[in-house]
Amino acid sequence: MNAALAPVRPITLAEIEAARIRIAGSILRTPLVRLELGPRFPDIRLKLENLQPTNAYKIRGAMNAVANLTEAERQRGVWTISAGNAGQGVAYAARAAGIACSVVVIETAPATKLERMRALGARLVPVAFDVAWRALEAHAFAGMEGTLIHPFDHHDFIVGHGSMGLEIVEDAPDVKAVIAAVGGGGLIAGLGSAIKALRPDIKIIAAEPDTAAPFARSFAAGAPQEFSDWSASFVDGAGGRNVMPRMWERMRPVTDAALVVTLAQTRAAMRLMAEKARVIAEGAGALPLAAALTGKAGDGPIVAVVSGGNIDLAKFCELIAG
């Protein structure tokens, strides 16, 4: 671990409100759409972050983090580590700021994500998942120059995601629970910090696939845990090998529950969104809906965060057909 890392500190409502103003011209205030399923199902609304310019919520944090760079940091350029969505967000923000960007990218990332990062001007360095995860833990990768915009363990990045929480509370004042997928934990830490500051009664619920659910294991144990049974799946944007202690420190105070769903439930949620709302969601983007449909989050109103829609169309069709 890089000894120069700043200590974790609470994310304040004032910071989130300032970030929302700062990034307003670059991101979309995404719609909240009711999923009409009938009386036998919970009342579910979809927060459509798949409609962002990069088709994923990560642009919120990336724009805020790049906007807060010093002039010296801008001159050196930026780099990040990503399965695709954070890489697109940082590349988009870097291009807007006129600075160089490199991405240490997981080599099995969907082709659509790789193509989008290249189109945004990023230099890609493909590596195996284990190599990328070690770089995430170390906050370092040999040969990378410039300022690291960590895809989740970065204060300004998380603050940017908090802007989503402000929108949810404003657009769904009757909401009882918000469900978000957990990969590294930046999304739930950001939106959870915003929502709990405004409405502590709203439950914040984490969703993970059963192939990679270290946060649920950590939540049950009351401390950060490894997930020894980890395996790769089409849910490439969520589920890590372990919960990093710094992220546990951020996530645990603002999270009320952790739900685990199967890959079959996730595929069914992807298909349901396509059929009922004409929404294309990647695996991680469908986890919250899958979790809501288990009934374990209550009858609602529930907001399910559709965190992204970056998936190869051929793969999407294969998954929902199966």
Brief summary of the model shown:
The protein is α/β, with parallel strands linked by helices and about 325 residues long. The chain has 13 helices and 10 strands. A 6-stranded mixed beta sheet has the order 1-2-10-7-8-9, with helices on both faces. A 4-stranded parallel beta sheet has the order 5-4-3-6.
What does this structure look like?
It is a single chain. The chain is an alpha/beta fold and 322 residues long. It folds into two domains: 13-57 and 155-321, Rossmann fold; 59-148, Rossmann fold (3-Layer(aba) Sandwich), CATH 3.40.50. Helix content is 43%, strand content 15%. The protein contains 13 helices and ten strands. It has helices at 13-23, 58-67, 71-76, 85-97, 111-119, 129-138, 155-171, 186-198, 214-221, 245-251, 263-277, 283-293, 313-321, and strands spanning 32-35, 44-48, 78-82, 101-106, 123-127, 147-148, 177-181, 203-209, 257-261, 302-306. The strands form two sheets. A six-stranded mixed sheet has the order 1-2-10-7-8-9, sandwiched between helices. Helix 4 (85-97) links the parallel strand 3 and strand 4 (101-106). Helix 1 crosses helix 7 and helix 2 packs parallel to helix 4 (85-97).
List its salient traits:
322 residues, alpha/beta, Rossmann fold, 2 domains, 6-stranded mixed β-sheet, 4-stranded parallel β-sheet, globular
> What is the CATH top level name of the largest domain?
Alpha Beta
In terms of DSSP E residues, the strand content is 15-25%
Q: Strand order, biggest sheet?
A: 1-2-10-7-8-9
How far from one another are the termini? 42 Å
Radius of gyration: 18 Å
CATH topology of the largest domain: Rossmann fold
Cα shape: globular
Helix content: 40-55%
Secondary-structure element series: HEEHHEHEHEHEHEHEHHEHHEH
Class by SSE composition? alpha/beta
Please tell me the overall pLDDT: 95
Stretches with pLDDT under 50, minimum 5 residues: none
Specify the biggest β-sheet: 6 strands, mixed
Q: Any idea what the CATH architecture of the largest domain is?
A: 3-Layer(aba) Sandwich
Number of helices: 13
Number of domains: 2
Number of strands: 10
